[in-house]
Amino acid sequence: MSVVAAAGAVSADKAGGNHWQKAAETMAVERLHDTQLERLRATLRNAVDNVPFYRRRLDEAGIAPNDLTSRDGVAALPFTTKADLRDHYPFGMFAVPRDRLVRVHASSGTTGNPTTVGYTRGDVELWADLIARTLAAGGMKPGDMLQNAYGYGLFTGGLGLHYGCERLGATVLPISGGNTDRQLKLMRDFGVTALSCTPSYALYLAEAARDHGLRPADLPIRVGFHGAEPWSNEMRRQIEAALGIDALDIYGLSEMGGPGVAFECLCKAGMHVSEDHYLVEIVDPDTLEEVPEGTVGELVVTTLSRVAQPLVRYRTRDLCSLSSATCDCGRTLARMSKPVGRTDDMLIIRGVNVFPSQIEEVLMTVPQIEPHYQILIERKDHLDMVEVWIEVGEDLFGETMGQLETFERAVQHRLYSVLNIQVQVKLKEPRTIARSEGKAVRVIDKRPQ
Amino acid sequence: MKVTQVTVFLENRSGRLAEIADLLGRRGVNIRGFSTTEAAEYGIVRLIVPDPVAAREILHDAGFTTHLSQVICVAVSDEPGGLARVLDTLAEQKISVDYLYSISFNNICFAVHDIEHAVELLAGKVTLLSDEQVKIL
After folding, report:
1. What ipTM describes this predicted complex?
2. pTM confidence score
3. Spatial CA neighbour of A214 closest among A188, A175, A186, A240
4. A393 in B contact zone (CB under 8 Å)
5. From the list A397, A402, A432, which residue is nearest B11 (CB)?
6. Alpha carbon distance A296, A103 (integer Å)
7. Preferred mutation among A400, A405, A407, A433 to probe B, highest tally of B CBs within 10 A
8. CA-CA distance, A108 to A180, in Å (whole number)?
9. pLDDT tens digits for A122-180?
10. How far apart (Å, rounded) are the C-alpha atoms in residues A443 and B30?
């Protein structure tokens, strides 16, 4: 299939921000739909030719790539789920041989195995363009400096924003997460104009700035790009007031390549989906039928341009709504609302996806642990804190404090190696964790919604 | 000669220690000695009682996490240097003491790494109490 990524150029949009690829971002809807149909067929051909899973699926559904005559025909295609990705771990969903793969990222799976994401060189370039659109929409252009405080590594946030910023021609400061004092120092010393991090870290940083006696006017940043975890408009107002910036939401998921699926313009009226590269639908999570525009349902995404890992009707489990009305910024790209919830039990903790089943799996490998546990999530100083409560049975309880402390540390370490987040293990007396009649309440999430 | 000790795991919640004392009191268990150790969130209570097996059962049935272990109980001579003599004896043989606490009168309870060796070493030098003797302290 053809590589669609083309470099862009900065031009002003009507909301005070910039376009990166104006033609694509403001394409007439009819043309957009034609483009989507053409790319959807190419994606299906790539999937059927190169991924045995999709060959089987489409065969069962009795559909050939060329049968599609309109982009709405996507509704006849079978869904793809996270379980399908897990079943084909690690590389069974890839459509290219190893010598065309230039990058692999991974995020948590629902159980032991992570979800892997592959990229060809073209996929990496496309991704960079999508992030360049995102940053431009916030008003960035060459000469700006982005302090990228997303974590670098297997998580797609760090490298995603990094490549996008370079693609735009702006300067990236790859500071990664943590070390708040240094973040504040470099922000001021370097005259940083934009910040990317999770919304909760933005608030944490704002608080630290206040503790240092810094007022919003002392900070040179103008705009922030915050995603990877759910946040409210109230939180947006807090971040904007505390840092003196426009705080914009960005959306993506590693399965789709990472951030860059959708982004806000300065109108802050929903996130524009890069529909020329992602075909989105909203379905009722129970009936899986499409819902009327504006109704909240599950977001389903089909990749239109990714080569290494085409995904057809991937069920994101995120609940949101869509609007196709043209935005005041001039973009014709449909807008998605902030996700309002999940259809599964996935938790997002400091931007990291965590499934309770992963925690349970770790605990069940430790023979001395009683089958009762609870996961408590709170927000302290704007950061998510996770406690895992375990009951101390007589099998575990030895004689000395040292044994208990060693045990706590060992479980904490094991959880860290699987989840990649720090978890506090709390030892509790037997029968102190509430039992319930039916389905046990394993997760208590006390974070403000 | 060794003595059996009852150990109980407790979360740091007010009233928990009182519950143990109440429970044992009501069941006629006379506590001869005890100690507590605490971390930020929980602690360990150690008890020397006349019938440790029965006391443990009472606590266990009431839902406490319990454990029985062996310690040595030394009647330390009531004079300056009395404790030092015992500790020196153990130190010379590199027997490490996990913790110790004093119980009724001049008796000290020791939890050590190599208990058999420690008993052997101390037996001729100091008075070691038995379970039976602890009962009538």
Report:
1. 0.75
2. 0.79
3. A188
4. yes
5. A432
6. 34
7. A400
8. 26
9. 999 999 999 999 999 999 999 999 999 999 999 999 999 999 999 999 999 999 998 99
10. 43
